[in-house]
Design goal:
single chain, alpha+beta, Cathepsin D, subunit A, domain 1, 2 domains, 7-stranded mixed β-sheet, 3-stranded antiparallel β-sheet
Length: 188
């Protein structure tokens, strides 16, 4: 049975709309991946769009038992968390390449640390060159159900660090740190 030209036109239009909807749906589902790939190909820095709540493990999954916390990788591949440092909320990036926790000057103030210029007695080599730091010991750092007390850290001079780094002086005190399938698991 042959279709009339009007029916062929109608089905052709339906197929076009279905293809467009499929392409838009796939683009929306894989937006972060596509953006990161295109940014890399164009040599443009990609900023993460994953909020810190989204970066936590899927809320539909059963919550890990006490002393365990999971973080999901952001679009840029890094792991971000909202930590409590000395009881105050601070956004951090987990950095296994940092030998210790490194706080921005502003986050140190938020965490209740009051520093004087004479406190900046340490020198560190960073990706941006040599910087002066103030060695400190933090009472506690908490991420979800994971808490570590008496953590060695360094406060960077004002303007020398953009994001507080959760380095090895915190991570090495945990029983286990595991990265698998885009998830970072911290076990106290």
């Amino acid at each position: 049975m042959a279709l009339s030209s009007g029916a062929r036109s109608f089905f052709g239009e339906v197929a076009s709309w279905a293809a467009a909807a499929l392409i838009l749906g796939l683009g929306a589902a894989h937006y972060d991946t596509l953006r990161a790939e295109l940014s890399g190909m164009l040599g443009v820095a990609s900023t993460p769009t994953t909020t810190q709540e989204e970066a936590r493990a899927d809320p539909q999954e059963p919550a890990p038992r006490g002393g365990t916390e999971q973080l999901r990788a952001a679009a840029d591949g890094h792991y971000y968390a909202e930590a409590e440092i000395n009881g105050r909320s601070v956004d951090v990036m987990v950095d296994t390449g940092a030998s210790m926790v490194a706080l921005t000057y502003e986050d140190a103030e938020r965490a209740g640390l009051r520093l004087r210029p004479s406190d900046f007695t340490g020198r560190v080599n960073t990706a941006n060159g040599v910087a002066s730091v103030a060695p400190v010991t933090l009472d506690r750092i908490t991420i979800g159900r994971v808490t570590v007390r008496d953590v060695r850290a360094a406060v960077c001079e004002r303007g020398r660090l953009n994001k507080t780094l959760l380095g090895m002086s915190f991570l090495s005190r945990l029983d286990r740190v595991d990265i698998s399938q885009g998830r970072l698991t911290l076990v106290e």
